[in-house]
Amino acid sequence: MSDRTGEGERVRDDGFDDFLDAVESGEGYYLECPEGHGSLPPRRVCPHCGATDLEETPLPETGEIETYTEVHVPAPSFADDAPYVTAVTDFGGARLTGIVRDTDAVTVGTEVALDVAETETADERVLVFRVR
Amino acid sequence: MTGVRVAGVGLTHFGKHPERTGRDLFAEASERAFADAGVDRADVEQLNFGNFMGELSEHQGHQGPLMAEAAGLTAPATRYESACASSGVAVREAVKDVRNGEADVMLVGGAERMNNLGTAGTTEALAIAADDLYEVRAGMTFPAAYALMARAYFEQYGGSREDLAEIAVKNHDNALENEFAQFQRAITVEDALEAPTIADPLGLYDACPITDGASAAVLVSDEYAEEHGLDAPVSITGTGQGGDKMALQDRRFLARTPAAERAAEEAYDDAGIGPQDVSVAEVHDCFTIAEVLAVEALDFYAPGEGIGAAARGETTRDGDRPVNLSGGLKAKGHPVGATGTSQVVEMTRLLRGDHPNSDAVPGEIGVAHNAGGTVASTTVHVLEVDR
Q1: pLDDT mean over A2-23
Q2: What is the number of other CB atoms lying within 10 angstroms of the CB of residue B72?
Q3: What average pLDDT does the segment A28-48 reach?
Q4: Does B125 fall in a domain?
Q5: Is-catalytic flag, B334?
Q6: Helical segments of chain B, H only
Q7: Which residues form the ChsH2 C-terminal OB-fold domain (chain A) (predicted)?
Q8: Which H helix or E strand runs over A2?
Q9: Among candidate residues B173, B161, B154, the one with its CA nearest the CA of residue B204
């Protein structure tokens, strides 16, 4: 989204871009603390309990849509993507937010798999969910 | 510990003023507040100012001293930024400073210029109040975020788009006589249901407008009010603030707002009251579903029970506990950095009897609930009037 800031190419965001790379190669993970709380990188502490020993734990193959919306009025960086469906999904250990692709049949409880794709507007990498 | 009185309040018209700068808007609001208070500007010891998107909309940071200058002050000034709760936080910090003796006279307020960015630019600017990595990059806008919460609410507790439409209709009705409101026109449930979809299940009439405007209030200690013979019957008797995870995905609840629950509990305890003592409320209805979440967080209703309050006539003008008699963010407008203080301004006018809807106020105690982002930050204030 370099056009958002006028600062040229976006630099890499350590942690988050590593996470997208991992999802892209089918090895998605989340961070798990000893209490079993899950969250996404980059993190140095568990956002739920403050534990500092976080372990990369494989994400389950599938998750479930917990809530979703079809966005008709997008920000400029998604202008050509609209309308699109943004969803919050539950992948067991962690929740993820992304865009649901390739389906009209979205409902709460729909089973989805995780992937990475590019936005149509800005060719930026985005987490996507594909209905199983 | 001294009490804190609202000596004077001021607003600009809330609406589309794309050609007016933030400093001009705040100069107008603060001028009204000083005229209302009858307080000498030279007595002001500090300005607490709320603004959210000044860097994006006006290429203007460091707004504290700029706005002090616009208000005619030489006092030190600080900008508070907490997304849409920016000037609610400014009020809270001012209350603390007066109480602890740091200052006897404070100016608080906020301003936001938004319409010059257009709809797309404003949508993008507002989105940065969400988590950039996890939410904005996944296409989240603010209407989308509240739509996610609305669907989660419907799933968990029930409710319908009609219930939400009743809230929009109520708040438009309340704004009819409010000269400061952006929309002084009535709508029907059908209008709301037939409006274009923004992010389903939310349509255009479920959303507050894009608004330019400013708000200001002069807060003084009890001692200062007495020494100067001020007519200041309204006091801020309780303040509370709560926080939550930034991103929805990291929240325990998608259909409840614990940050506001905590803020309300703290404010009630501080004022020595309970939710049953509150007779009127100004709440942060940036979207219709947000009013539902607010009245539940304020403990007027149990979770899942607030959705039908407007439809049942309980929160309407002639109801037992009217909510958003100003028109709310929905109809009065939402210049984000100005909103928190504007709620205190409206509640002050409602309680002391010089608001067009003052005759609908059934008691002496009101609350103002101001939420930032998807309620990752919230302030709640209790206001009481001497009768």
Answers
A1: 79
A2: 14
A3: 97
A4: no
A5: yes
A6: 22-37, 54-58, 63-71, 86-99, 118-127, 142-157, 161-175, 189-194, 222-227, 258-271, 288-297, 328-332, 336-352
A7: 57-115
A8: helix A2-5
A9: B161
pLDDT band at A105, cuts 50/70/90?
Answer: confident
B294 neighbors B260 (Cβ within 8 angstroms): yes
Whether residue B260 contacts residue B297, with contact meaning beta carbons closer than 8 Å, is answered with yes
B127 CB near a chain A CB, below 8 Å? yes
B158–A contact, CB cutoff 8 A? no
Partner-chain contact A72 B196, CB within 8 Å: yes
Residue B253 lies in a domain: yes
Q: What is the mean pLDDT of residues A46-67?
A: 97
Q: Is A75 in contact with B141 (Cβ distance < 8 A)?
A: yes
Question: For the segment B322-353, what is each residue's pLDDT rounded down to a tens digit?
Answer: 999 999 999 999 999 999 999 999 999 999 99
ipTM of the complex: 0.94
Eight-class DSSP state of B259: H
How far apart, in Å, are the Cα atoms of B65 and each of A130, B12, B68, B95, B257? Answer: 51, 20, 5, 20, 34
Are residues A30 and A57 in contact, defined by beta-carbon separation less than 8 angstroms?
yes
Burial bucket for residue A17 (CB in 10 Å: 0-12, 13-18, 19+): middle
Class of residue B272 by CB neighbours under 10 A (exposed 0-12, middle 13-18, buried 19+): exposed
Domain count, chain B: 1
The residues, any chain, with a CB within 8 Å of residue B377's CB and separated by 6 or more, are B82, B83, B85, B89, B241, B242, B243, B244, B259, B371
Nearest one of B143, B160, B128 to B198, comparing CA atoms: B143
Query: Tens digits of per-residue pLDDT, B62-90?
Result: 999 999 999 999 999 999 999 999 999 99
In degrees and rounded to multiples of 5, residue A39 shows phi and psi of: -155, 170
Q: What is the CATH number of the domain that holds B27?
A: 3.40.47.10
Would residue B229 count as lying in a domain? yes
For residue B334, what are its two tokens?
């939402």
- Token pair 């849509």 is found at A65
Residue A8 has a pLDDT of 63
Both tokens of residue B211?
A: 């608004």
Q: Is B202 a member of any domain?
A: no
Dist. CA B383–CA B203, nearest whole Å? 33
| Regions of chain B where pLDDT drops below 50 | none
B239: which 2 tokens? 């303040």
Using a CB-CB cut-off of 8 Å, the residues of chain A touching B248 are 88, 97
> Which residue from A minimizes the CA distance to B249?
A95
Q: Is A12 on the interface with B (CB under 8 A)?
A: no
The domains of chain A, with CATH numbers, are 10-59 (no CATH), 60-132 (2.40.50)
Domain that holds residue B213: 4-117+209-385
Q: Look at residue B319 in the predicted model and tell me its pLDDT.
A: 98
B52 CA to centre of own chain: 13
